[in-house]
Design a protein that fits this description.
chromatin regulator, 50% helix, Arc Repressor Mutant, subunit A, two-stranded antiparallel sheet, nucleus, DNA binding, Swc4/Dmap1, mainly alpha, DAMP1_SANT-like
Length: 442
């Protein structure tokens, strides 16, 4: 049953399809040909996707041997160059045209050994003598080190005398360093050698093993007690840090007050000069320093944070006491100077210099505001003093001449001219006369 029959049964209006929609063909699926050498089941499971691991080339699967090539497997003897006893063993080898393979054993390249320095009797007498060690004991030690590739646990087990593992290691590395220094033409030639840069410390090694033994031999009760002690120590440290952060803003405020007093003693400034300034023109207050200190303390509490995040927080703290207009002026000044608002390489030095530059720009803007306020205050004082003089004509005013470097010139004020055709004594027109009062207005 088609769509038209269903609409006829339901009583719906028939919408005949266009000819293009009726004859619209389904999109043909792209047919992928199965490559040779892969079974149909495997190709259906993978869907033609490349394998995760490299596989054999398809051309190698059905390769036929060369007609004149005769391959056979033979049981042949071989020797391993890694062995010193010339032991001869047998294994199966692929032989082509009755020609056996030549060369060393395949796995001989994995035989790696440590290069052990060796000394002569003369070098021992001149540089390696030790009152605790004899030459025979040192010879046995170096022989075991070469035999067991510096596996000192095995060397300590095989050493005939009662020597500890740390003593064996200390003797071997001390002799090696002495030989390197004796054979070098200058100390700079062996300065970068690992044995010279990081010498073996027997005291530190013993302490390390003792601490490790203590940790591994602890019971559950001791581990729980240590965890409680660490938690209590962490709590005490946090309390001390909080108390220190609370004291830092007070100390900075006291320092600022002391500096202001010292400046007041050194300079003769009127006592009402700062009190009359607008709040936006004064230097950053104690509240800004407190915000700055609190932001720095909160960042220290995080222990781990992005330096860009820390820079944003410090910028917000430094700009908390100024308005949005001042912040935009600071950003505009940075752009004029060619400085990015956010450093591209936010190292510690770059972030510190960026914050210092922002503070200097804020100080510059505050000084500009103070200068404008002082100039307006001075001009108002001059106008008031000039108006108080009795002989000063009222039609004269003072104006600053831009070409006289701060001098003032007098400008004569011309009287206002009356418009033509108007007489002050002429009667007012009827529509402009005052209205007479009536009895209802009372």
């Amino acid at each position: 049953m088609g769509g038209t029959d269903a609409k006829d049964i339901l009583g719906l209006q028939k919408t005949p399809l266009s000819l293009t929609q009726e004859k619209k063909s389904r999109p043909q699926k792209e047919s992928h040909r199965k490559p040779d050498g892969i079974s149909r089941e495997v190709y259906a499971l993978t869907g033609g996707v490349a394998p995760l691991m490299p596989s054999i080339d398809v051309t190698q699967l059905k390769r036929r041997p060369v007609a004149d090539e005769k391959v056979a497997w033979k049981w042949l003897p071989f020797t391993n160059s890694a062995r010193k006893d010339d032991l001869q063993l047998y294994h199966w080898v692929r032989v082509v045209n009755d020609v056996p393979p030549t060369g060393d054993y395949t796995f001989a390249k994995y035989n790696k050994s440590v290069e052990i320095v060796k000394y002569t009797d003369e070098e021992y007498e001149n540089h390696l003598t030790d009152p605790v060690w004899t030459k025979e004991e040192t010879d046995q030690l170096f022989e075991l080190c070469e035999r067991f590739d510096l596996r000192f646990t095995i060397i300590a087990d095989r050493f005939p005398l009662s020597r500890t593992l740390e003593e064996l290691k200390d003797r071997y590395y001390s002799v090696s360093r002495a030989l390197l220094r004796a054979r070098a033409q200058s100390p700079a030639d062996v300065a970068n050698h690992p044995l010279m840069k990081e010498p073996y410390d027997i005291t530190w090694d013993r302490e390390r093993k003792r601490a490790l033994t203590m940790v591994l031999s602890q019971s559950r009760h001791q581990e729980k007690k240590d965890a409680e002690i660490l938690a209590e120590a962490k709590r005490i440290t946090e309390m001390r840090l909080a108390a220190r952060r609370a004291e830092e803003p007070d100390m900075s405020a006291n320092e600022n007050v002391g500096l202001d007093r010292a400046d007041g003693v050194g300079r003769s400034v009127s006592p009402s000069s700062h009190s009359q300034l607008p709040p936006t023109a004064v230097a950053p207050s104690t509240l800004t320093m407190a915000d700055y200190a609190s932001t720095l303390a909160s960042l220290r509490m995080l222990h781990v944070y992005l330096r860009t995040y820390g820079l944003e927080q410090m910028v917000q703290a430094a700009s908390s006491a100024v308005g949005l207009r001042t912040i935009k002026r600071v950003e505009q000044t940075l752009q004029d100077l060619g400085v990015n608002l956010k450093p591209k390489v936010p190292t510690k030095t770059v972030c510190d210099e960026h914050l210092e530059l922002r503070k200097e720009i804020l100080t510059l803007l505050n000084l500009q505001k103070q200068l404008q306020y002082k100039e307006s205050e001075g001009s108002s004082h001059r106008e008031g003093a000039y108006a108080a003089m009795p002989d000063t004509p009222k039609e004269r005013v003072f104006a600053t001449d831009p070409f006289s470097f701060g001098a003032e010139r007098t400008i004569k004020k011309e009287p206002k001219r009356k418009g033509p055709g108007r007489q002050p004594d002429s009667p007012l027109p009827a529509h402009k006369r005052p209205r007479k009062m009536k009895a209802t207005d009372l």
